[in-house]
Specification:
Layout (H helix, E strand, L loop, with lengths): L16 E5 L29 H12 L6 E5 L9 H9 L6 E6 L4 H11 L3 E5 L5 H7 L8 H14 L4 E7 L8 H6 L6 E7 L6 H7 L4 H12 L2 E2 L9 E4 L6 E5 L12 E4 L4 E3 L9 E2 H6 L4 H18 L17 H4 L2
Parallel strand pairs: 1-2, 1-10, 2-3, 3-4, 4-5, 5-6, 6-9
Antiparallel strand pairs: 7-8, 8-9, 10-11, 11-12
The structure holds guanosine-5'-triphosphate, S-adenosylmethionine and iron/sulfur cluster (SF4) (2 copies).
C-alpha cells in the first residue's frame, strides 16, 4: 500500500478516489448530521450492497475506470456487519493504492488492531470537542459519557500505527469554536492531523440557520496569533488546505467548502450503501443506480461505460450552486446517507 502524502501543490486532479458508504445507520446522532429528532428512512437490508456486490463493483468497474483510492465511510462504517472481511478483501487488491476509513471512533478501542492487521492504514476520526459534556451533547448521547471511549479509540489507533491519523472537527459557532486552540495544540507534540471543517447545510438545517459556520481564515488567524502558522509540508488527497504550527509534529487542515471553492481540484465520487454513484457531494445531478443494474445482469462492460460517461460529465456537474441558492435548498440525502 502506498503512503498517500504528496507535495503541496494545487492542480486539477484525476478522479481516482471513491468514497464508499458502507451503511447509512450510526451509533451516534450528531447534532449537525443526524439529530435524534430527524426522521430518516433507513436503507432496507435487501437494498444494501452485499460485500460480494461491492467487491465486484470495485474489481470489475471502479478499478478499470481508474479508481485506485478508496475510503470507507457511512453512517458509521464500523457497525457494518462484515466490515473486517471487506477491509481485508479490498486491501488485498493489487491496484488499490490507498484504503482509508472515516469513523466516529467509538468502536476503535477494540477494533483498531484488527483493522490494521486487515490492511487498513489511514483513519480519519471525528472529534468535535475535548470537553466530555459538549461532546456528549454534540453526538446526541446525553448522559452517557462517550468522549473517553472515543479518546481511548484514538489512542489505540495511534499506538497500533495508523499514520496519518486525522481528527475531524466540525466547527459550530457558540458550541465548540472556543476550543479551536486546544484542539490545534494536539498537533504540537503528536503526529496527528487536526482538520477544521466548515459546517455545511446538509443534515440539521435548524442548527445551521441558528448557528451558521465559522470561516476557516478566522480560525487560522486565531492560531496564527497564538503560535504562528506556516504552509504544511505535506498535504492529503482531499479538500483540506494544510498548515502547521512552526515546529509542530502534526498539521492543521482546513476544509472550507462554505468560504472557498476547491471544486476545481475535485478528485472523487461517492457510492452510497445502496449502490448509487454520486458525482458530487453538494449537487444531486447525474447519480446512477449501479446496484439495480448489477442485479439486473447488466454486463460489467456496460456498467464501466456508464461510470466512464459520468466521469466525462463530472466537471459540468461539480458544485456550482454557490450563487444560485443551492445552499439553502434541501438535499434528498443527508451526510450520513452520503458518507460525508
Ligand atoms: N464539499 C466537499 N467536502 C468534502 C469533500 N470531501 C470531504 N469533504 C468534507 O470533509 C469532511 C472530512 O472528510 P474525510 O472523510 O475525513 O475525508 P478527506 O478529508 O477527503 O480525506 P483525505 O483522503 O484524508 O484527505 C467530509 O465529511 C466533508 O465534510 C468533497 O469532495 N467536497
Ligand atoms: C457523515 S460522517 C461518516 C463517518 C463517521 N460516522 C464519522 O462521523 O466520522 C463523515 C464526516 O462528515 C462530517 N459531517 C457530517 N455532517 C456534516 C455537516 N453538516 N457539515 C460538515 N461536516 C459534516 C463529519 O464530521 C465526519 O467528519
Ligand atoms: S457525523 Fe458520523 S458519527 Fe455523527 S451522526 Fe453522522 S454519521 Fe454518525
Ligand atoms: S462540492 Fe462536489 S465538486 Fe466540489 S469538491 Fe465537493 S464533491 Fe467535488
Amino acid at each position: 500500500m502506498i503512503q498517500s502524502f504528496e507535495p503541496t501543490v494545487n492542480q486539477p486532479k484525476q478522479v481516482d478516489y471513491l468514497r464508499i458508504s458502507l451503511i447509512d445507520r450510526c451509533n451516534f446522532r450528531c447534532q449537525y448530521c443526524m439529530p435524534e429528532e430527524a426522521e430518516l428512512n433507513y436503507i432496507l437490508q435487501q437494498d444494501l450492497l452485499t460485500n460480494e456486490e461491492l467487491l465486484t463493483l470495485i474489481r470489475e468497474v471502479f478499478i478499470p475506470a481508474g479508481f485506485t483510492r478508496f475510503r470507507l465511510t457511512g453512517g458509521e462504517p464500523l457497525i457494518r456487519p462484515g466490515v473486517m472481511e471487506l477491509v481485508r478483501a479490498i486491501a488485498s487488491l493489487d491496484q488499490v493504492e490507498d484504503l482509508a476509513m472515516t469513523t466516529n471512533g467509538f468502536l476503535l478501542a477494540k477494533m483498531a488492531s484488527d483493522l490494521y492487521e486487515a490492511g487498513l492504514r489511514r483513519l480519519n476520526i471525528s472529534l468535535d470537542s475535548l470537553n466530555a459534556d459538549t461532546f456528549d451533547w454534540l453526538v446526541g448521547r446525553n448522559g452517557q459519557s462517550l468522549w473517553s471511549q472515543v479518546w481511548a479509540g484514538i489512542q489505540q489507533a495511534y499506538q497500533v500505527g495508523f499514520d496519518p491519523l486525522k481528527l475531524n472537527v466540525v466547527v459550530i459557532p457558540g458550541v465548540n469554536d472556543h476550543e479551536v486552540l486546544d484542539l490545534a495544540s494536539l498537533t504540537i507534540d503528536r503526529k496527528w492531523h487536526v482538520r477544521f471543517i466548515e459546517f455545511m447545510p446538509i443534515g440539521n438545517h435548524q442548527l445551521f440557520s441558528d448557528r451558521a459556520w465559522v470561516p476557516s481564515e478566522e480560525l487560522r488567524q486565531r492560531i496564527r496569533d497564538r503560535w504562528g502558522l506556516e504552509a504544511g509540508k505535506v498535504r492529503g488527497n482531499g479538500p483540506a488546505d494544510v498548515f502547521q504550527i512552526p515546529g509542530a509534529l502534526g498539521t492543521l487542515g482546513f476544509i472550507s467548502q462554505m468560504s472557498e471553492c476547491f471544486c476545481d481540484r475535485c478528485n472523487r465520487m461517492r457510492l452510497s450503501a445502496d449502490g448509487w454513484l454520486r458525482p458530487c457531494l453538494l449537487n444531486e445531478t447525474g447519480q446512477i443506480d449501479l446496484k439495480t443494474a448489477l442485479r439486473n445482469g447488466v454486463t460489467f462492460s456496460k456498467l464501466l461505460e456508464q461510470v466512464q460517461n459520468l466521469l466525462v460529465i463530472k466537471p459540468e456537474i461539480n458544485y456550482k450552486g454557490r450563487e444560485s441558492g443551492t445552499l439553502t435548498g434541501t438535499y434528498s440525502r443527508t451526510m450520513s446517507q452520503i458518507g460525508g
